[in-house]
Design goal:
alpha/beta; 7-stranded mixed beta sheet; 9 helices; elongated
């Protein structure tokens, strides 16, 4: 059954105007995030100035992390490499860079550093889009509750990104990015019945406490919309499989929804695989989804 805020599949599709505005916001985020990386690249360039050979660059500890990034070693990869492993990689790759670039090896290192950090920029931008999407939904739920005279408790997540971790009111608690063992994977949004005695971590392992689960995708690029839907659909299917014949109510919301997706989503709404869905760029749909969650 279709929710009240939509009448047909086309109602879910992201408009060209919303896509354009989303790309503008995304570009602004990347400009802001990239400024830190640009400063780091300029700092590396300055640190390399007095050095005569790449081998000399191995000595200063201050630029070691930057050099590792320049030769393509990610921060996550470092956890699997000893200091000796890192020295060997740096020594061999720096020698190869000097062989290829000759006297321009310093510029080559700075450019390679910038390329590696560019990959990191993409990930940071996607994480920010996801965090904002969940915050948008959390705020919509809080607004819906406020309209009923209920003030929810908002618990922010630790760390630098502005992101809601939990939202609680009455006998309900909403958990963002929970990873219950009973499902085995991350779930973007989990609504639980709260008895005010059981710790949240224990509630996540109690099937009878589950009221609803949802996937929320904040990316605006239409080119990645189908892939986001496949990822979310797989996550929701895992929930169904974990709960057998009586899963909690399931919902999906995204900023980028294309025509092909919209028909699949509506099909799942009509056969009750999905209980609700919304386009995050459409305030009336976000409000409708939030009102529905609050009513559960």
């Amino acid at each position: 059954m279709l929710p009240p805020h939509m009448k047909k599949a086309a109602d879910l599709v992201t408009s060209r105007e919303a896509t354009t505005e989303g790309f503008i916001a995304q570009a602004r985020d990347k400009v802001r995030l990239a400024s830190v990386y640009i400063k780091d690249a300029r700092r590396l360039e300055k640190d390399l100035e007095p050095l005569s050979t790449p081998q000399e660059a191995l000595k200063p500890k201050a630029i070691r992390q930057a050099l590792l990034a320049a030769v393509g070693i990610s921060v996550k990869a470092l956890a699997h490499l000893t200091s000796d492993d890192q020295d060997k990689i740096l020594g061999e790759v720096l020698a190869e860079i000097q062989h290829q670039a000759g006297g321009d090896w310093k510029e080559e290192l700075v450019l390679r550093f910038a390329l590696t950090r560019g990959d990191s920029l993409g990930g940071s931008s996607r994480n920010l889009a996801g965090a904002r999407a969940k915050d948008l939904f959390a705020q919509a739920v809080a607004d819906s509750l406020s309209s009923q005279g209920v003030k929810p408790e908002v618990i922010p997540s630790a760390g630098g990104q502005r992101k809601t971790q939990k939202l609680s009111w009455g006998d309900r608690i909403m958990v963002f990015d929970g990873k219950p063992r009973i499902v085995g994977k991350n779930i973007d949004v989990i609504l639980l019945e709260d008895d005010h005695e059981t710790p949240t971590g224990d509630l996540l392992e109690k099937k009878t406490a589950y009221v609803a689960c949802g996937e929320i995708k904040g990316g605006i690029d239409p080119a990645g919309a189908d892939e986001h839907w496949k990822t979310a659909n797989s996550a929701l299917q895992r929930v169904r499989a974990s709960f057998g014949g009586s899963p909690p109510a399931l919902f999906f919301a995204a900023a980028a929804i294309v025509d092909s997706m919209s028909h699949e989503i509506v099909s799942q709404l009509r056969d009750n695989r999905l209980a609700n869905a919304a386009n995050l760029t459409k305030p009336d749909q976000v409000a409708g989804l939030a009102n529905w969650v609050v009513s559960l």
